[in-house]
Amino acid sequence: MSETTTRVAVFGAGTMGHGIAQVCAAAGFAVQVCDPSEAAREKGLAGVRASLDRMVAKAKLSAEQRDAALGRIGWGGDVGAAVDGADVVVEAVPERVELKRELLQRVDALAPATALLGSNTSSLSITELGAALRDPSRLVGLHFFNPVPVMELLEIVRGVRTAEAAVDRALAFAAALGKTPIVVRDMPGFATSRLGVALGAEAIRMLEQGVASAEDIDRAMELGYRHPMGPLRLTDLVGLDVRLAILDHLHREVGEQFRAPPLLRQMVRAGKLGKKSGEGFYKW
What's 257's DSSP letter? Predict the structure, then answer.
């Protein structure tokens, strides 16, 4: 464990939130997951348990380690109780700037003044989110990748007013979790989302134009460029609605090259959001 971190609060029990909670608990931290929805908390706990069970089945974890990790995670709906004594707070709520800003303001008022605050945003401005806080110097972007227990990368985003000490603590936190960090400036889309959605959007345009099937477009990148997963299957995994929101944000902030393909917008309107809805570019 990091010498300066023993307790972590995670806001949001969804796919990213419960994944972050799992890796923190597996690293030895006491974790409190906060989500106002009891159903979301129950689903999150089931997700953590299933993920840890798979690791035990693959002999990557012992049954004792699984049980210990589960025992380190608490679940609740009260913001104040979640951040009580927290050394690190990570928000992983939906990608809406108003929602994230409101939550961070509440956390800023209730968490210890020494707590590092992190946002798991994949594209929103850390500088803008920090502007609403009393002390924006302690806010960093902590962009995890899905599935969190498997993906090695942690993108650390430095806002305009983020202190160097906060970046150093984030780097130590990444190391404690067994993640490999990169540090990027607070620019639209950071490094990963900007490149990732550009590739995904072009793959969707190719599908629109009938260049090849979804399977063959993905196979081209997997076999020709050694990508572990093709851009369309990855879009299904991330969520078509999430990819659309990032593209719309980058279109506004960066320019025309990030205009969302009409096919993507149509599929989102039809409720075809990828793996989480059972259908996207593939059937799940």
Answer: G
Nearest to residue 41, comparing CAs of 66, 67, 71, 74? 74
| Structure-token pair, residue 158 | 């430095």
- Rg of the chain (C-alpha set): 19
Pick from 44, 106, 114: nearest CA to 86? 114
How confident is the model over 22-34, as pLDDT tens digits?
999 999 999 999 9
Start-to-end CA span in the chain (Å): 37
Token pair belonging to 126 = 């850390």
- Residue 147: asked if its preceding bond is cis (omega within 30°), the reply is yes
Determine the Cα–Cα distance for residues 98 and 104; give it in Å rounded to an integer.
10
Tokens 């009891």 found at: 38
Neighbours of 109 (CB within 10 A): 12
Q: Give me the mean pLDDT over the 208-229 stretch.
A: 97
Non-local CB neighbours of 122 within 8 Å, separated by 6+ positions: 95, 143, 190, 192, 193, 242, 246
**With bands split at pLDDT 50, 70 and 90, how would you rate the model's confidence at 1?**
low
- Domains recognised in the chain with CATH numbers: 7-185 (3.40.50.720), 192-275 (1.10.1040.10)
Q: How many CB atoms lie within 10 A of CB 68?
A: 14
